[in-house]
Amino acid sequence: MAIAYFRCMMCGHEWEDEVERGDDVERTCTKCRSNSIRQFKSKPEPKE
Amino acid sequence: MGLSSRKAIYIPFPQAVPSAYTLDMENCLGNNPIACGKCQDVCEQDAIDYDDQDELIVREVGAVVVAIGLDVYDPTEMDEYGYTRFENVITSMEFERLICAGGPTDGHFVRPSDVTRPKRIGFIQCVGSRNPAIGRPYCSNICCMNTIKDTLLLADHYPDTGNVVSYQDIRAFGKSFEDMFQRSKEMGVRYVRGLPGDIEEDPETGNLIITVENTTSGKLERHELDMVVLSVGVIPPKDLKKISGLLTLSKTSDGFFMESHPKLKPVDAPTKGVYFAGFCESPKDIKESVCQSGAAASKVGALLNAGEIHIEAITSVIDPDLCTECGICAGLCPYSAIVWEKGQKAEVIEAACAGCGCCGAACKFGAITMRHFTDDQLVAQVQAVLEHEPDEKVFVFACNWCSYAGGDMAGISRLEYPASNRVIRTMCSARVSEEMVLEAFRAGAPVVLVSGCHYADCHYINANRQTVVRVQRLWNKLEKAGVRPERLQLEWISAAEGQKFAKVMKEMEVLRATVTPEEIAHAREALKPKPKKEKVKKEAKAESVTS
Amino acid sequence: MVANASNGDELRIGVFVCDCGLNIAGAVDTADVTEYAKTLQDVVCAVQNKYTCADPGQNEIKDAIKLHNLNRVVVASCTPRQHEPTFRQCVHEAGLNPYLMEMANLREHCSWVHPNDWDGATSKAKDLVASAVARARFLQSQEEMAVPVTQRALVIGGGIAGIEAALQLAEQGHKVTLVEKTATIGGIMAQLDKTYPTMDCSI
């Protein structure tokens, strides 16, 4: 288990979640339902 | 259904096929001779083997008919109707068993609470159907006629019962259905247009009280009933997901299987050689199921009689002169169709290749040609589309099976969306290489969308996971180059999701309008290919980090 | 690898723009699209049809292949998911390899979804045709691999639909394996007492 950071590339919503190595899940933004979810290993720089 | 009791060894019902006893292993005491073993003692044929195990039988087949049927809606969650709280509220399936001569009461129709014959019976329609509030918006097709049939049965067996049917609409559209409906009304069954808010029970008598607004007369009606039958809807079978995964099938929004074309190919699955029969494709009655079975059987017959099929010439070919023996392609192929060992050139087994093109998009050395979807062909399309006024356009890559088909579905459904997008088709979203996306930005595209099947629906097992890997890598690349990474978008759109396709296209147009000419010009420059040597090194590094 | 599909021969592309009655022509200026197609590289003829998929439309393609010595064909009509097999067969009958035909989707992806944007839909249609022509320039002849069909069918589910399908296949003389997860066949229907509209027994 590790913490991953996610950012929705459509609405900018950011969140973190526990991920398992090699997990195979479809990601969807909980706010706008977009599938453009960018994953970061460490907390990304805040968007201006 | 728990209406009567049976032993741990039983024939499921009197006319069961095969007419053989079966053991209920959860309740059988097994062959511990101290505990039991009686059935084995009395069986003269020695047919009982407690240790018999499940056995895997392997059969090769050339075609598959999926006829996995339906599950019946369980109305317990609709607490307002008191199913399981009130003994005399039963489902239409339980009604079938109670009125059946071979059923638990030998066909004597009685109510559960006091085993007396009910004289006033209420039917409530659309329980679990046409009810978006519980996530079941579709019509179950069969329940209206089933209730009409039930009222006729009751009128026939027990002419003194008074029946009330509470409904939204009566859908009696099939051959001779309207006759049955009229007959039921003539027999004195009261049809009240409107559904009750809830059911109350009189704890003394076990009788049930429903209050319905009759929307035809505008009056509130109160009925005291001996028994209420919930006319339950049908839901997709719970095995649907499993079968869907095994045969790479898709679902429509109601959860049933998606056919190849709603009008013209109603029994064909999108997967070649797979056909649907019966309820699992959509709610239908017995006659329609039989019709569809006939159609499916004739399709299978045609396929088997043909003796051979031609595989579309969309497979990958590796040029041994260009292959650097890195083996990346072999590791990515979802079908293990690429043979490679260290120090050897990779090779494609053509018969095993399904044609997703994932390998072609991953090869850094241009050694893999995807027949009929070559780099040259796709890049030529990118450039042709963006040749004039690229800043007005949203560039879209769509996979053949889902996203492109979702676009078709939007068309068939006549859903309007802005005309700014330009879609090009690949067999799988994994065919889209990083170079192709960069090429679109270089050609001046303000926004690029890569779209493919949902994870569960990927037509190439899981090739679209590579799409995600590439898009993630591209976001990093774009950011590094000072290009707003949000200009690259990713969406999963299934063949059934015409609505989503249209919605996404609207969102893309909104996004496109935010991209300035300066941004487009910057991206054109910043993403220009770097000198070859450096690029290869860098990408090889990125590969090792992400994999 | 293969830079250009022409293999040294001159590329000769024919474009066939379909009105589909008013399905396409009602929202897209198909005459304008046809004229535009004529300006694209290697296009030697562009024809507007009322219904390209109908016999007269298909014959027009076949005639043009012979008359103009076409070696690539672009059909700008509906989704390839519907009529690609039709037009592949059509060009094949005129002596072209079926993989040398490309489609542009002017109906599902254009006219049907942009019915109130004449200019927008027309300019999109032009791009879709340009895209198909660009792709056609790189198309190659392909040979399909023939694979024998295993002579047995599998029917999953022993309800009325599955039983019926299995029986009909058996009647046609095919081997069938019927798989049912429960101990008996008959499915939900076998649990019913009487069935509509005939009011007879379910078993």
Describe this structure in words.
The complex is a heterotrimer of chains A (48), B (547) and C (203). Chain A is mainly β and 48 residues long. Chain A is built from no helices and 3 strands. In chain A, strands 2-1-3 form a 3-stranded antiparallel β-sheet, with no helix packed on it. Chain A is globular, with a radius of gyration of 11 Å. Chain A starts with a strand and ends in an 8-residue tail after the last strand. Chain B is of the alpha/beta class and 547 residues long. Chain B folds into 4 domains: 58 residues, no CATH class; 248 residues, FAD/NAD(P)-binding domain; 59 residues, Alpha-Beta Plaits (2-Layer Sandwich), CATH 3.30.70; 174 residues, Rossmann fold (3-Layer(aba) Sandwich). Chain B has 15 helices and 23 strands. In chain B, the strands form 8 sheets. Chain B has a 5-stranded parallel β-sheet with strand order 5-12-6-7-8. A 4-stranded parallel β-sheet of chain B has the order 21-20-22-23, sandwiched between helices. The radius of gyration of chain B is 31 Å and the shape is globular. The mean pLDDT of chain B is 91. Chain C has 2 domains: 124 residues, Rossmann fold (3-Layer(aba) Sandwich); 49 residues, no CATH class. In chain C, helix 6 links the parallel strand 6 and strand 7. Chain C has a 4-stranded parallel β-sheet with strand order 2-1-3-4, sandwiched between helices. Chain C has 6 helices and 9 strands. At the B-C interface, strand 3, helix 2, helix 3, helix 4 and helix 6 of B face helix 3, helix 4, helix 5, strand 5 and strand 6 of C. Strand 15 of chain B pairs antiparallel with strand 5 of chain C.
The profile of the biggest β sheet of chain B is: 5 strands, parallel
Structural class of chain A: mainly beta
- Residue runs with pLDDT of under 50 for 5 or more positions of chain B: none
Q: How would you describe the oligomerization state of the chains in this entry?
A: heterotrimer
Intertermini distance of chain B: 51 Å
The largest sheet of chain A has its strands arranged as 2-1-3
How many helical stretches of chain B?
15
Number of strands of chain B: 23
Rg of Cα set of chain B = 31 Å
Largest sheet of chain A: 3 strands, antiparallel
The general outline of chain A is globular
**SSE succession of chain A:** EEE
What is the structural class of chain B?
A: alpha/beta
Overall pLDDT of chain B, averaged?
A: 91
Task: Give the amount of beta strand of chain A, in percent.
Answer: 35-45%
Return the CATH architecture of the largest domain in chain B.
3-Layer(bba) Sandwich
Q: How many structural domains of chain A?
A: 1
Strand content of chain B: 15-25%
- Average residue-wise pLDDT of chain A: 89
